[in-house]
Amino acid sequence: MVSRLRVDELTAPNGLSAPSAPYGLKLPNSSIPGSTTFDWYEKGTWTPAFTAQTPGTISFVTTVSWATFTRVGRLVTASFRCSVASGTIGTASGNLRISGLPYASSAEGGGVGSCFTTGVDLFGGNVVIWLSPGNSFIEFYSSVDNGTWGAAAIGGLSISDEIIGTITYPA
């Protein structure tokens, strides 16, 4: 019989000191010590906020219907529904961003997610969410058939515009 899964105890028997970390699910047969410990599971909420590549004097008030995340190991999935309640772009410029993700993406890789929008003036057809490596904000990119892709500019966002999306990325 082959061992497939092991769970370490968090308390030691007979009042002895607890075993040393890391605790978690142990998956056997790895050539990298410690890389087989499943030691993180977390669910929670986060606070998305509209911002820009160059924030300037942006003063948007973001209404958040919901914003949740789940982290399993290094993998984070964040979902949200938010809209612009009030405010102005002011001197903000550049790409439209949503900040406030619960964890920054790892330096090894970012993530791509999906979304749909109401009222947001975008570059083209298909819209995706992009999180570049090492960052904790998302940007929106769109492309058209046989064309190029481009970032959604902060100038395309107005009062009552809404975005619903999900992205999965390594933390």
Structure description:
The protein has 171 residues and is mainly beta. It has no helices and 13 strands. Strands 4, 5, 6, 7, 8, 9, 10, 11, 12 and 13 form a ten-stranded antiparallel β-sheet that branches. Strands 1-2-3 form a three-stranded antiparallel β-sheet, with no helix packed on it. It is globular. The N terminus is likely disordered.
Overall, the morphology is globular
Strand content: over 45%
How many distinct helices? 0
User: Fraction of residues in helices?
Assistant: under 10%
N/C terminus separation:
35 Å
Residue-averaged pLDDT: 82
| Unreliably modeled segments | 1-6, 14-19
What about the largest sheet? 10 strands, antiparallel
- CA gyration radius, whole angstroms: 21 Å
Pairing-aware structural class of the strands and helices? mainly beta
DSSP strand tally:
13
H/E series, N to C?
A: EEEEEEEEEEEEE
Write the layout of secondary structure elements.
Elements: E1 6-7, E2 25-26, E3 37-38, E4 41-45, E5 49-54, E6 61-72, E7 75-86, E8 93-99, E9 111-118, E10 126-131, E11 137-143, E12 149-151, E13 162-170
Antiparallel strand pairs: 1-2, 2-3, 4-6, 5-8, 6-7, 7-13, 8-11, 9-10, 9-13, 10-11, 11-12
What is the structure about, briefly put?
By secondary structure, this protein is mostly beta strands. The chain has no helices and 13 strands.
Features:
0% helix, mainly beta, 171 residues, disordered N terminus, three-stranded antiparallel beta sheet, globular
